[in-house]
Amino acid sequence: MNIRLDNMNAMVCGSSGGIGKASAIELAALGANVTLLARNEDKLKAALNELSVTPSQKHDFLVADFSNPEALKATVNKYLIDTKKNYHILVNNTGGPPAGPAIDAEEIDFLSAFSNHLICNHIMVKELLEGMKVEKYGRIINVISTSVKIPLQGLGVSNTIRGAVASWSKTLASELAQFGITVNNVLPGATSTERLDAIIQNKSNKAARPAGEITIEMQLEIPMRRFAKPEEIANAIAFLASPASSYICGINLPVDGGRTGCL
Question: Would you state the pLDDT for residue 199?
Answer without folding.
Answer: 86
